[in-house]
């Protein structure tokens, strides 16, 4: 069995399986192959390949509990929630999913110096400059209204 580390930190295990078919005049080779192929797929899915031990070959022990074996049409791969093919895929929209220490997969949003994100997984970006500008404008309008109101109240009290 060979292990290969993929782009998103996934570990792909590859094996070569040789099927031997006995010639049978009553059954076509294609039918025999499809039957054997489905049996092998079923064995992979239900048998030892669902064990976390299959993933322990090239993954550090501290991160192993974040990886799960996943069988797809491409074979067996050990994936995290950051992998797009994972059943528990963590979609970070415009951000990047990474495994952070003992906390596990997390979304890291881009340009956090320019934007505040109001929702998890890098959704609801608000420009920090626009937010400060809006708050400043609101405070400015409040000060102007307070000054005008104060002047009117002062004049009313002074002239009455």
From TrEMBL:
Transmembrane helix is among the record's keywords: yes
Q: Which domain of life is it from?
A: Eukaryota
Q: Which InterPro entries match?
A: Mucosal_Integrity_Assoc
TM region positions: 129-154
- Keyword line: Membrane, Transmembrane, Transmembrane helix
* Record protein name field: Uncharacterized protein
- Upper taxonomic classification of the species? Eukaryota, Metazoa, Chordata, Craniata, Vertebrata
